[in-house]
Amino acid sequence: MCGVVGVWNNAGGERGQSPLREVDPTDAARVSFFSLYALQHRGQESAGIAATDGRDLRVVRRMGLVGQVFAEPDLLALGGRAAMGHTRYSTTGSSRIENAQPMVVRDEALGELAIGHNGNCINARDVRAQLETEGVEFQTSSDTEVIAKAIVAAPGATWDAKLVHALPTLSGAWSLVILTPRALYAIRDPFGVRPLVVGRKGASLMVASETSALDTVGAEFVRDVLPGEILRIDDAGLTPVADMAADRTGLCVFEHVYLASASSELGGHSVYATRERMGEILAEERPADADVVIPVPDSAIPAAVGYARKSGIPFREGLIKNRYIGRTFIQPSQELRQHSVALKYNALRDVLNGKRVVVVDDSIVRGSTGGPIVQLLRKNGATEVHMRICSPPIRHQCFFGVDMARRDELIASKMEIEGIRSHIGADTLGYLSLDGMIRATGATRKDLCTACFTGDYLVPVQLELTKESLERQRAEGSLQRQSSRSR
Ligand code: 5GP
Ligand code: MG
Q1: N or C: lower Cβ tally within 10 Å for the chain?
Q2: Which of 250, 280, 313 is the last residue before a domain boundary?
Q3: What is the reported pLDDT for 324?
Q4: Cβ–Cβ < 8 Å for 31, 217
Q5: Whose CA is nearest to atom 19 of ligand 1?
Q6: Measured from the CB, is residue 89 less than 6 Å from ligand 1?
């Protein structure tokens, strides 16, 4: 997961009538900044913006949250008629500044190109190895650099031509936003695993991972970038350059469950309403005799609302989340880390005391938060705790851009539901069925990637692929170089 945005202010629009006047009359970087803010939930490790006034690219990228990365002088220096931004959640390649995006590459004839990527290119190792035999050098462990350099190395006299050549060689998930001094591109992989939308505000066009980023800057939704579409955005407007669509689509169902903001729409459906329906279906499938329904905030709030409505059990908030905690780069001590649930949530004794509690969460991944949450509820007087999960057991690793853990770390790949229940110490545990989850999204199983629940991957995957694999490959490469030198 990651968030990407792009802004193109049409040169034809007169300055004085700039559609972005309310935000800032000339500043594409500032619009990118505010829309990245709206995508902060998609990645908290680093953020960056590239901007252009039609000649060169200027880039600012640092570790940290969007609000920590950019200060006023950065936005003034970036300025620009067009810009793009990225907020990173590390999937391939670890959390380091060299892996921060946008990444800038250069072609001798065509000049610079900045790229921001949401997803995971699963054949990056092979593509990289091939490019290395052609003499291409790599500086980072990120799959985004592989995508960028594959584009530069592809044949073609224009960026359009290079994109059309390079992208079909890549497998996996890639929603890309690309900026050159001449054009902005919005691109989705052939299955459309990660979302990407186009918006408009007056004569300005925007792209963003989610519609919530359009709302934040007052742009209106135009359409989804289609699976497999290469869309060029410049003063001529929107130009589809190529259609690489696969014979099926595969939007990640976990976007509906957890990843996307509840305030976004996915494929025309409100994420909030989908999550409420998941809760309603869960109440039908896994009822409980209880006095109160509470969510694990924030992600499970709509699902708990739906569960309460369908079951007739009152909805209350029983846990308050500290909204400022986020992901911090200051590592807590080992003792504090073991109490991360205590750092994150405070319980409301008045709500819980003497009550039989249904606690709704969106998913169980490693199974490490469930136990401490059940304990916290009991400590605050809950007499029974019925855990309800708004998705099926996660049994399979994600290769398409969610850092969910290796298969052996997924609790449901090792234990049956009764084992998980006893591990977290709940009185009962109930998961939403696969069919119920899919029904709630309004889509069908063949429109969605459900691999983390079903093991049905969109394309064959190498099961040993891990986040650090490109780094290992790089280390092995340098070892080989050293040993051949010493020989
Ligand atoms: P677990 O303790 O089972 O590993 O995590 C479950 C909790 O993590 C749930 O409350 C869910 O909302 C949240 N969660 C699910 N997927 C992700 C993810 O990809 N990243 C993060 N940071 N949290 C997640
Ligand atoms: Mg959660």
Answers
A1: C
A2: 250
A3: 80
A4: yes
A5: 404
A6: no
Number of C-beta neighbours around residue 243 at 10 A:
11
Positions marked active-site = 2
Whole domain around residue 171: which residue ranges?
3-250
DSSP secondary structure letter of residue 121: E
Number of CB atoms found within 10 A of residue 79's CB = 17
Q: Are residues 205 and 284 in the same domain?
A: no
Q: Whose CA is nearest to atom 5 of ligand 1?
A: 365
Ligand 1 binding pocket includes 368 (Cβ within 6 Å):
yes
- Cβ count near 269 (within 10 Å): 16
Instruction: Say if CB 360 and CB 342 are below 8 A apart.
Output: no
470 in a structural domain:
no
- Is the pLDDT at 333 greater than 70? The verdict is no
**DSSP, res 258:** I
Confidence of residue 483 (pLDDT cuts 50, 70, 90): very low
Q: Are residues 218 and 362 in the same domain?
A: no
Both structure tokens of 344? 């994150």
List the shell of residues around ion ligand 2, using CB closer than 5 Å: 299
> Do 51 and 32 form a contact (C-beta atoms < 8 A)?
yes
- Tally the domains of the chain: 2
Rounded CA-CA distance 448/445 in Å is 5
Q: d(Cα 2, Cα 88) in Å, to the nearest integer?
A: 5
- Phi and psi at 141, nearest 5°, equal -105, 15
Q: Which ligand gives the minimal distance to the CA of 391?
A: 1
Alpha-carbon distance 5 to 21, whole Å? 19
Whether residues 234 and 302 share a domain: the answer is no
Contact of 275 with 258, CB cutoff 8 Å: no
Residue 407 lies in a domain: yes
Q: How far apart are alpha carbons 413 and 423 in whole angstroms? A: 14
Q: Decide if pLDDT at 345 tops 80.
A: yes
Cα–Cα distance measured from residue 1 to residue 4, given in angstroms and rounded to the nearest whole number: 10
Kind of pairing between the strands at 428-431 and 384-389: parallel
SS3 per residue for 160-199: HHHHHHHHHHCCEEEEEEEECCCCEEEECCCCCCCCCEEE
Regarding whether 275 and 225 lie in a shared domain, the answer is no
Residue of 125, 131, 176, 122 lying closest to 152 (CA atoms): 131
Q: What is the mean pLDDT of residues 26-49?
A: 92
Phi, psi of 283 (to 5 degrees): -65, -35
The answer to whether residues 8 and 116 belong to one domain is yes
CATH of the domain at 234: 3.60.20.10
Minimum CA distance residue for ligand 1 atom 9:
363
Q: What is the pLDDT of residue 469?
A: 59
| Tokens read off for 121 | 């290119």
